[in-house]
Design goal:
The protein has one domain (4-266): Rossmann fold (3-Layer(aba) Sandwich). The chain contains 11 helices and 7 strands. The protein has helices at 4-18, 23-27, 67-70, 88-97, 110-123, 160-170, 190-193, 196-200, 209-219, 236-239, 245-252, and strands spanning 78-82, 102-107, 128-132, 145-151, 171-185, 222-232, 257-266. Helix 5 (110-123) links the parallel strand 2 (102-107) and strand 3. Helix 6 (160-170) runs parallel beside helix 9 (209-219). The longest helix has 15 residues, at 4-18. The radius of gyration is 18 Å and the shape is globular.
């Protein structure tokens, strides 16, 4: 079993390469890894092009949701984007905060930080900052953010609980988060779990949905809601690299499943909370059961 450092090194190496890949290539893979499909559809990412503040050259096609669409960002807010990549979600968030707000993107891959800074400088964005660092040990003071967003990144961190605790630390009392991520329902076949490529591809690093929600609750958040949920269908030509025919059929029958969820949670408005908040789940939106952005065009 790989150590946390080894897993982080795998991700950093992979995303250094991803930073220079085209959006079209990344869309045909699991989060930009070399596990590519020849089938003509996007595996995970959703269409940002209709969101205000969208900048095409900052979109590497690496997300699995639209957290900024659900994040309830207000003018003047301070927003932190975890795993900010080339700046896609940060720039959408900037539009929502307006000129009086501030957006801070955090990423531990130098190539991504460099790309995001170039994109921000090109547009003269003086209220967007990109800071290099681990999201499970953020280079940010406590009680900084009104809102935290993240898109398909937390699943890449070996210690999910540590990330949730860090989110709680940096969010102001009364603030909240909206995060899109990959989770599991049921156990994945060993071929996917054990493959380093699939770890960097946002799949084998994912944990069970119930465990994921529990980690959020354990951190101290309340009013936890599932804002959107959809199943992720990996195409056969990709799965054949890791699984046999029987295992692929089992995935298709959804005895086990890979899901994208967008989750919301709030930090209590008081500076201290005397009791652990009660877990509350409310599904606001469920996508169609078919393959995301597949030939059927469900997105």
């Amino acid at each position: 079993m790989k150590t946390e450092k080894e897993l982080k090194d795998i991700v950093k190496e992979s995303y250094t390469k991803v930073a220079e890949q085209t959006k079209d290539y990344n869309l045909s893979t699991c989060c930009g890894t070399s596990a590519q499909t020849d089938e003509n559809y996007s595996i995970m990412a959703e269409d940002y092009s209709k969101l205000e503040g969208y900048n095409e050259d900052a979109d590497l096609g690496l997300g699995c949701g639209l957290p900024t669409q659900f994040a309830q960002i207000s003018e003047g807010d301070t927003v932190i984007d975890l795993g900010s990549g080339a700046g896609n979600d940060a720039f959408v968030a900037r539009h929502e905060t307006g000129p009086t707000g501030k957006v801070l993107g955090i990423d531990f891959t130098p190539a991504m930080i460099n790309k995001a800074r170039i994109n921000a400088d090109k547009r003269g964005f003086n209220n967007v900052e990109f800071r290099e660092g681990d999201i499970d040990d953020m280079p940010v003071a406590e009680n900084t953010a009104d809102v935290v967003v993240s898109n398909c990144v937390l699943n890449l961190v070996p210690n999910k609980q540590k990330v949730m605790n860090e989110m709680f630390r940096v969010i102001k009392p009364g603030g909240h988060f909206s995060v899109s991520d990959i989770v599991l329902k049921g156990k994945l076949p060993e071929g996917l779990i054990n493959d380093s490529e699939m770890y960097a591809g946002c799949v084998s690093g994912a944990i069970q949905m119930d465990e994921y929600i529990q980690a959020i609750e354990n951190a101290g958040f309340k009013n936890i809601q599932i804002q959107k949920e959809k199943i992720i269908q990996l195409p056969d030509d990709m799965l054949l690299k890791y699984l046999n025919a029987a295992q692929i059929e089992e995935l298709k029958e959804r005895k086990t499943g890979i899901f994208s969820i967008t989750v919301y949670g709030e930090k209590d408005g008081k500076t201290e909370t005397s009791a652990k908040p009660k877990l509350q789940l409310r599904e606001l939106q469920t996508a169609n059961e078919g393959a995301c952005c597949g030939p059927a065009g469900c997105c």
